[in-house]
């Protein structure tokens, strides 16, 4: 052990300590469609862990009433804040990192990319609505790394859909096996609680937000006569359903869950603090601690002593006084300590990290140390990009931090042609930051920008104005989707490029992309050029 300490330049933690710290980390994000209850549940998770004392704190941030923070004007208007980007709290002697996945209008490529930095995900579904569009997209991203998913069926205090039908929909639409862990007893006005299938006990529901400790009355055994006495109608229904569930659905299987093939399902009501404790426990008991991550030469174990990590998100100008950008780095191995030196692989430079932010539930704080699974914020003066890797000793380039094909496109024009240089510079930098994707048509013409969420365009326009002094206009483009293209056969690829040059563009990293005017065109083109591969994501260069 003493060898370990001596051999490292940064007075690294002994390996047992690293292993212990890694084992108690849980890093996850929430995937949901807007209004399913992500903000409410986030707040309740913080409340139950004791990280915040009062309900309403997260909501206040969301609506921009958070007095102590100042953000870029547009972020302020929309109530997007860095303080809620990463929330770290302790629960049952574990360190939980909850990474925010921006939804609503602030839905952007960041939302997808955050999911490449988590070890598990919590899927929140509005039980009245079932599986919705954004959830489908986000689950697809989770599938890329077979991320384990815990499911919470929310709003059981409302008139919701039939539970079996909901599970059926999750299984068929999202293509993941459901293993119900709790099962609802009634719903809406007659919602009485849930039956815990693994523990054979009923957790009784009382509406209200008061009990932050999550104390609930528990009745042992589904055949307990007390139940028949108190809820004669609902209990019969429950027994019937439980029989069906036992027969028709899968029992919880930890391995299947960890492989991303099965999701444990819980029912509850976030606003009523009901079912939240079970979710926290599932995350602690079942969700994985940080696992190995792929780098270009080998995979990296979280317990390795040298520090390593990668940047998955860059957020700009959160503090207008400093006009700084923060690069969000996910630690992949080793021990981070303030003041330590690390290598910035892409630019081949060593940096000393003396000022860094960590994210506690209550406020931004200076990070003193961090382990695999933790997120640290590095001040970025424009030299860090999404996908950049940092390490001590061996140079490691982490993989699997993709760019995602945009869904919305705009043609960029400027009012003052003399500003064309600034425009290009601005878009180049904003592209590297992942704020937007920039495409230069092969045949020439105006630049095209692409995004997965509409707010990205507003942010880019406002930043071009504020940071580069460029007054840009974004006009609608007749493009419906983009696909990066590649082909092993050089001759075929050359023919393809020649025949379709008017639909081709080069992105900020020099990759060729096909911009399809509509889905029919995309399908036909794919059919006509079977040897050409059309990619929906591209790796960081
Ligand atoms: P988000 O958009 O996913 O962050 O959703 P919010 O947390 O903002 O919730 C959307 C709406 O659903 C809000 O009006 C919440 O008060 C409400 N809501 C959240 N959880 C529940 C619940 O368990 N029951 C009911 N009836 N409403 C809920």
Automatic annotation (TrEMBL):
Main location: cytoplasm
Keyword Ribonucleoprotein carried by entry: no
Pfam families named among the record's database cross-references: EF-G_D2, GTP_EFTU, RF3_C
Compartments, as annotated in UniProt: Cytoplasm
Record CDD domains: RF3, RF3_II, RF3_III
Keyword NADP: no
GO biological process, one term: regulation of translational termination
Main function: Increases the formation of ribosomal termination complexes and stimulates activities of RF-1 and RF-2. It binds guanine nucleotides and has strong preference for UGA stop codons. It may interact directly with the ribosome. The stimulation of RF-1 and RF-2 is significantly reduced by GTP and GDP, but not by GMP.
Family named by the database record: Belongs to the TRAFAC class translation factor GTPase superfamily. Classic translation factor GTPase family. PrfC subfamily.
The protein's name: Peptide chain release factor 3
Provenance organism: Ferriphaselus amnicola
């Amino acid at each position: 052990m003493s060898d370990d300490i001596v051999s490292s330049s940064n007075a690294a933690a002994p390996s047992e300590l690293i292993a212990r710290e890694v084992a108690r980390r849980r890093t996850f994000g929430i995937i949901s469609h807007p209004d399913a209850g992500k903000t409410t549940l986030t707040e309740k998770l913080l409340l139950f862990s004791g990280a915040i004392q009062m309900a309403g704190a997260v909501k206040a941030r969301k609506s921009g009433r958070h007095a102590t923070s100042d953000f870029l004007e547009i972020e302020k208007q929309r109530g997007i804040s860095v303080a809620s980007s990463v929330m770290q709290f302790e629960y049952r002697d574990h360190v939980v990192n909850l990474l925010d996945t921006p939804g609503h209008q602030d839905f952007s490529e960041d939302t997808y990319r955050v999911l490449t930095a988590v070890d598990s995900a919590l899927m929140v579904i509005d039980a009245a609505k079932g599986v919705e569009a954004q959830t489908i997209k986000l689950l697809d991203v989770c599938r890329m790394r077979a991320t384990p998913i815990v499911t919470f069926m929310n709003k059981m205090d409302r008139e919701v859909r039939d539970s079996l039908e909901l599970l059926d929909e999750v299984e068929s639409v999202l293509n993941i096996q459901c293993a119900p862990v709790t099962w609802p007893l009634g719903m809406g006005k007659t919602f009485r609680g849930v039956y815990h299938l693994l523990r054979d006990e009923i957790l009784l529901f009382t509406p209200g937000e008061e009990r932050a400790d999550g104390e609930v009355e528990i009745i042992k055994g589904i055949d307990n006569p007390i139940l028949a006495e108190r809820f004669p109608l609902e209990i019969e229904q429950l027994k019937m359903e439980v029989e069906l569930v036992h027969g028709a659905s899968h029992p919880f299987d930890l391995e299947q869950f960890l492989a991303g093939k099965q999701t444990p399902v819980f029912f509850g009501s976030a606003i009523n603090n009901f079912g939240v404790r079970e979710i926290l426990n599932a995350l602690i008991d079942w969700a994985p601690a940080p696992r190995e991550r792929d780098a270009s030469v080998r995979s990296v174990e979280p317990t390795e002593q040298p520090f390593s990590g990668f940047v998955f998100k860059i957020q700009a100008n959160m503090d207008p006084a400093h006009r700084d950008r923060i690069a969000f780095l996910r630690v992949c191995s080793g021990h981070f300590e303030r003041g330590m030196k690390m290598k910035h692989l892409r630019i081949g430079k060593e940096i000393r990290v003396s000022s860094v932010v960590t994210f506690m539930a209550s406020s931004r704080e200076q990070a003193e140390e961090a382990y695999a699974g933790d997120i640290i914020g590095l001040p970025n003066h424009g030299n860090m990009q999404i996908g950049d890797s940092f390490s001590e000793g061996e140079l490691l380039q982490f993989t699997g931090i993709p760019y995602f094909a945009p869904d919305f496109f705009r043609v960029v024009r400027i009012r003052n042609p003399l500003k064309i240089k600034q425009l290009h510079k601005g878009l180049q930098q904003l592209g590297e930051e992942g704020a937007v994707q920039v495409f230069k048509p092969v045949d020439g013409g105006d630049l095209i920008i692409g995004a997965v969420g509409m707010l990205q365009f507003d942010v880019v326009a406002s930043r071009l104005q504020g940071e580069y002094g460029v007054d840009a206009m974004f006009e609608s483009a007749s493009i419906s989707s983009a696909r990066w293209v590649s082909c092993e056969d050089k001759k075929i690829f050359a023919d393809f490029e020649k025949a379709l040059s008017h639909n081709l563009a080069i992105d900020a990293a020099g990759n060729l992309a096909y911009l399809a005017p509509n889905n029919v065109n995309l399908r036909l083109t794919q059919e006509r050029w079977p040897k050409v591969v059309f990619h929906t994501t591209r790796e960081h260069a």
